[in-house]
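User:
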Amino acid sequence: MSSTALLTSPVEQMRQLLRDRNRPAKLNESTWLHSPLVVQKQGLQPELAPVSALLAVLDDLLAGLHAEQPMLADLLRGRFWEGFTVEEMVRHQRPEPQSTRRFHQQQERALAEFARLLQQAETTCRHLQGADRLRQRLPIPTYDELFGVESLVDPVLHYLHAAHRHPILSIKGIGGIGKTALADFVVRRLLDAGGNWQDLVWISAKQEYAA
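Assistant: Predicted structure:
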């Protein structure tokens, strides 16, 4: 995000982004091309150029808004996807019969909701990307699935979430009963659950992991 964008409200940012939606030259210079959502979209669909990936992200967000508030989604679709003016939208009673003043109020609300969905999606995306990065620090799991461990895993997760400062947890038992597999499983569950995990270090005394 540019410093200029940080000085404007989320609603104004969305208004400008959607205004630029049908202006490829503007989008080519947009800081939104570096959004984690765009990077994720290109990872899933490598054939998409950055601008096409950004447009696809906007389409996804509009579909998400439609699922929650279809009238607001139709308002944005008419204004910024189909290019109708406010006067044309009001004249055609889209998305409902209302005055021009009321339409502007609804448009502000729609832009605010669109900004909320975008921020929410970016937060989720950053979490997933961060979790994937940390997950790569772990060894390849020695198991496909673990059965009957929930009674052990749930108390461990509760303790780790409840501990305030540098929790230390020891898993003891004879060799070969699955202590390492249990620790690996717990760490993966922690990453899946979210949280502000900055880094992950996995150290093993096993011969195949030793340097």
